[in-house]
Specification:
This protein is α/β, with parallel strands linked by helices and about 300 residues long. It contains 11 helices and 8 strands. It has 2 domains: about 40 residues; about 180 residues, Alpha/beta knot (3-Layer(aba) Sandwich), CATH 3.40.1280.30. Helix 6 packs parallel to helix 10 and helix 10 packs antiparallel against helix 11. It is an enzyme of class 2 (transferase).
């Protein structure tokens, strides 16, 4: 560097490329970028999976397996429904064509055509083991679904729920149950309805329910006990001083075995009768086929009393 040369010019001159070829070469920084795995061609599921940990791959496989099982289950349910529909058509039974799930979520239950109300007496916490309480609550959920799908739904009440009891505990496991279009109450029946409107449905009653009374409130006992407390609902109705009745099973059908109906089955029968259908077709549709129920007129020599005493 000459004495007359500016120090700044000297630095600039030393940093400048000597040739055009040097100017075209890329400048390499002292700070190296982290190396990226080289991938030849587009990224595929295999290459993406290869970069995952063993635990992540295991989760992906589990998720894929679950999705496949879900699809297979839905397909199986569709085939089962189609077969059930074909059998119903062959037997001359009505085929259900209800609304879709999306439509049900948007639907607000309309009770303008309802002429009756149905209440489930849930004051039996101490008479059921926890397993049976769980079954009872599942049947309540089924009732709610049936009512939402019904062309002519009825006002539905869950009464006598014990505070912090087993029924309430199991109900709380269903998200949003407090928002169901059901009137849930811890109050007993007589604190909600006038005595003269109530009709307790029990299979031990000697009274046969032949028609539905306008403005009547029909009570279903929310007791799942596998017939261990036989006659309890009848005794309860008598103690309360309310009317009681049984469904007319043996008046329309001959049934090979004793039939104990679930809570939701009784409710489904009542829904259909409320919609204007006849007893015989409804009972044949709702009762399980394994019960071997046959229309009474097809067996004229059968015992008129039958082997079943009601619901």
């Amino acid at each position: 560097m000459s004495q007359a040369e500016n120090p700044v010019d000297a630095v600039a001159r030393s940093a400048a490329p000597d040739t055009v070829e040097q100017a075209e070469q890329p400048v390499v920084s002292d700070k190296q970028e982290p190396l990226q795995p080289a991938v030849n061609g587009p990224v595929t599921d295999e290459t993406a999976t290869a970069n995952l940990s063993k635990r992540q791959r295991k989760k992906l496989l589990k998720l894929a397996s679950w999705e496949e099982k879900k699809k297979a289950k839905r397909l199986k349910e569709k085939e089962k429904y189609k077969l059930k529909k074909v059998v119903a058509i062959e037997q001359g039974l009505p085929v259900r064509n209800g609304p879709s799930r999306k439509e049900l979520k948007r639907r607000v239950i309309e009770y303008s055509q309802a002429t009756i109300e149905i209440a489930v007496d849930l004051s039996f916490d101490g008479m059921m083991i926890d397993k049976d309480v769980a079954k009872c609550v599942k049947q309540l959920l089924r009732m709610y679904t049936l009512n939402r799908r019904a062309p002519r739904p009825v006002p539905l009440h869950f009464t006598g729920i014990v505070a912090d009891g087993a029924v309430q505990r199991h109900l709380s496991r269903y998200d949003g149950y407090k928002h169901w279009d059901v009137k849930v109450s811890s109050s007993p029946l007589l604190d909600i309805f006038p005595r003269e409107r109530l009709v307790y449905l029990t299979s031990e009653s000697e009274n046969v329910l032949e028609r539905l009374e306008p403005n009547g409130v029909y009570v279903i006992g929310g007791l799942v006990d596998h017939n261990q407390h036989k006659g309890h609902c009848l005794r309860l109705a008598q103690e309360l001083g309310v009317r009681h009745a049984r469904l007319p099973l043996t008046e329309h059908l001959v049934i090979k075995t004793r039939t104990i109906l679930t809570i939701n089955q009784v409710f489904e029968i009542m829904l259909h009768i409320h919609a204007g259908r006849d007893w015989q077709s409804v009972l044949l549709e709702v009762l399980p086929q394994r019960k071997g129920a046959v229309p009474k007129e097809l067996l004229p020599s059968a015992d008129p009393e039958g082997t079943n005493k009601g619901s």
